[in-house]
Amino acid sequence: MIRIALLSSAHMHASAYVHGLRALSNVEIIGIFDHDALRGQAFAKEHHLPWSPQLDPLLAQANATIICSENARHRFYVEASASAKLPMLCEKPLATTLDDALHMLEAAQAAKVPLYLALPVRFAPGFAQMLEAVHQGQVGRVLAMVGTNHGYLPPGWFLNVKESGGGAIMDHTPHVADLMRLITRSEVDEVFAEIDSRARQANIDDSGILTLEFNNGAFATLDPSWTRTEGFPTWGDVTLEVVGTNGVIEYDPFRPHLNVYRGDAPTHRHLGFGDNMDDHLIQAYVSALSQTAPHPLLANGLDGLRALEIALAAYRSQASHHPERIQHLL
Amino acid sequence: MSSRIRVLVIGAGTMGTVHSRAYARLEDAEVVGIVDPFDFNPRLAIDLNVPQYRDFDDVPGSSYDVVDVSVPSRWHLPYVVEALRMKKSVFCEKPLALSLTEAEEMVATAMTNQARISVGHCVRFFPEYVEANSLVQSGALGDIAVVRTFRGGAFPTAWNDWYANRNLSGGTLVDLMIHDFDFLRWVLGPVTRVYAKTTRREMNRIDFSLATLRFASGAIAHLEGTWAHEHFGTRFEFAGSQGILQHDSFQENPISITRTPEGGVALPQSGDLRSPYDLEIAHFIDAIRHDLPFRVTIEDAYEALRIALAAESSAMTGVSIDLQPITPARGGVTL
Fold it and tell me: Which residues are within 8 A (CB) of B324 and not within 5 positions of it... i.e. 6 or more apart?
C-alpha cells in the first residue's frame, strides 16, 4: 500500500484527487493536514478522512504527499515534504514568485525526492493522440497556436493576491501554456499581454490576452480569462488550435458532452462524459511512486517554473505595455 | 439624376460581380456598364446586357451617376480619385487602400470636390453582426471585457493570384481582418494599442495572423484571421460583466452543403432572402438618393485601415503600437 498524505484542502481540486486516489486499490489516504484547521476538519469530515492536527506526525507515516494549499503556501508544504524525504504532487501554479519556485526545486533536489506538478490537462481526452499527431508531422511544422482557458470567477483566497499571487493570469496561464510547450518542444522567450479586471470587477486581474513567442519561431495567443458568467452552460473551457504548414488541428477536450435541459433551470448545462483527466493524473502520479520511469506526461517542478515565468512576464508586460523577454532560470 | 441611379462598376471579379448583381436587383438603380481593366471576366457584362469597357476614360461621363470600385485593392486609388474629381458618388470595396497616404489622398479629394464615398465594410450589414452591435449598445452584456473574433478559411484564389502577394492584397491583416477591425471599432469605439503576429512572409499560400487590440473603453479584443484553414467561417464572442454573446457561423447556416473544394474567393452568406451584400448596396443607393448618412463613412474605412496597418507594423517589428486619437483635420470629417 502506498500511504498518501493530503496537505491542505484550500484548492478545490483536493476533492477530485481524493476521488482519483480512491479509485486505486494500492493507495491509502492516511490523512489530511491543513494550516487552516477548520477548513481541514470540514474537508476530512466531508470525505471521511482522518484529520491530522499536526503536520510532522502525518508526514512521518506517509510515503508521498499531495499539496493543495493556497498558491503562496506551496513552498511551505513542498519544503516540509522534502524535509521528510517524501515525493510530492503539488497543485499548480508551482509558486507565486520565482524565488519561491527556485527554493522549492532546490529543496526537492537536495532531498533527492521528485517534485511533480499537477497539470491534469496533459491527461485530458485526446491530448496524447494530438501530441503524437503533431510530433509525427501530420500538420507539418507548427507555425502558430491559439489557446483558451476560460473559467468562472473562483471563490475565496483565489481573489486575494497575497495568497494566490494573482488572478486569472496566474491561475489559468499554466495549463495551456504548458500544452503549447509540449507541442512545440520549445520554450517561450517573449510575452506580450493585455490584462484587466473589468469582467468580474473583483479587484483582481480577471481577463487578458497573452501573446507568446517561442524559441523555435512559433507564436501563440492564450486567453486565460475568468469571463464565464453564472448563466453559462459550463464552468469554462480548454481549447487549443494548432496551425501547421500542412494543416490545422482544433483540440477541445470538453467537446464530449451532453446538453441537459431542465424545466426549472434558466439555462441548459453541459454534462461531460468519458475519461476524467484528474483521475488519469492521479494514476500517473501513483504509478510514478512505484516505478522507476514516470509517465512521460507527468509534469515536474521545472515545468511549473517555466509556466510561472510566462505568467510573471505577462504581468510585467501589462505594466510596461511592451513585449517582455524571459531570462530562463535553470 | 435620372429616376434610376446609373452605376458604373469597375472590376469584374468576385466583388464586382456581387455588387453588379445587387444593383441590378434594385428598383431604383441600374448598372450601365462594366469597366474590366484586366479583361478578366467578359461574362458579367454579357449577363447584365451592358457595355464592357477596358478603360474608365472611354466611358462617357454623362452616362453614369455612381462609380463602384471593385478592382483589387492596389488599384483603388486612381479610379476613386478620378470618380470623385468628376463629383460622382463612389462605393469602394474594402480595404479602402493599402497605405494611409493613398487613403488620405482619397479623403482630401472627396472633401475638395464635396463628393460622397462609402466603403464595402459589408460585415456591418450581416444580421448576426448587426444584432451583436445592438445587444452590446443596449448594455445587456454590461461592460465588455474581452472580445474574440475568428474569420477565415482556405487561401483565396483569384485573378493573377493577387491575394498571395501581400503588396497587392495586404494579406490576412489588411485584407481579411480589416472586417473585424472595422466591426469592433463600430461596436467598441476607438482603439488605443495594437499588437499582432503573423506567419512569415515567405510562407507560400499560408497566411495566419493574430492580433490583440486595447480600446479606449478598456475592452480587450483578440482577433484571429486565417487563410490556412479548409472551410470559410466566422465566429465572435463578447464577454461582458453581465453576460456572454457567442456567434459561430459553422453552427448557424440553415443549409449545410459539403462539396469538393473548387477554390475561388470565399463569400460568406446568410440564409436570408436578401443577402448582406444586397442590403449593403441598397443602403448605399438609398443614402445617395435621399442624402442620408452612410453606415460606413470614409473616416470609418480610414480608421480600420489605420488599425490594420498598425497590426502589420507590429507583426513586422515585434513591438506594440500606440494609436493616437485621429486629428479632425485628417479624417474627422463626415462625408
Answer: none
**Minimum Cα–Cα distance from B144: chain A residue:** A199
Q: Which residues of A touch B230 (CB under 8 A)?
A: 248
Using CA coordinates, name the residue in chain A closest to B322: A321
The CATH class, in words, for A122-275+307-325 is: alpha beta
| Interchain contact B226–A (C-beta under 8 A) | yes
Q: A–B: how many Cβ contacts below 8 A?
A: 102
- CB-based contacts of A193: which residues, under 8 Å, 6+ apart? A169, A208, A209, A210, A211, A313, A314, A315, A317, A318
Q: Is the same domain home to B187 and B211?
A: yes
Q: Write down the mean pLDDT value for chain A.
A: 96
Cell triple for B152: 477565415
Same domain? For B10 and B57 the reply is: yes
**Does residue A282 belong to the interface with chain B, where contact is any CB pair within 8 Å?**
no
Note down the domain range covering B111: 5-121+280-295
- As assigned by CATH, the class of the A2-118 domain is alpha beta
- 10-residue stretch averages of pLDDT, chain B, 335 residues long: 87 96 96 94 95 96 97 96 98 97 96 97 96 96 97 89 86 96 98 94 81 98 94 94 94 73 72 89 97 96 97 96 75 45
In chain A, count of helices (H) and strands (E)? 10, 15
Output the CA angle A19-A23-A28, nearest 5 degrees: 85
A192:B143 CB<8 A:
no
- ipTM of the shown complex: 0.90
H or E segment and range at residue A74: helix A74-83
What is the model's pLDDT at position B201? 62
Contacts of B318 in chain A (CB under 8 A): 190, 213, 323
Instruction: Check residue B105 and report its DSSP letter.
Output: H
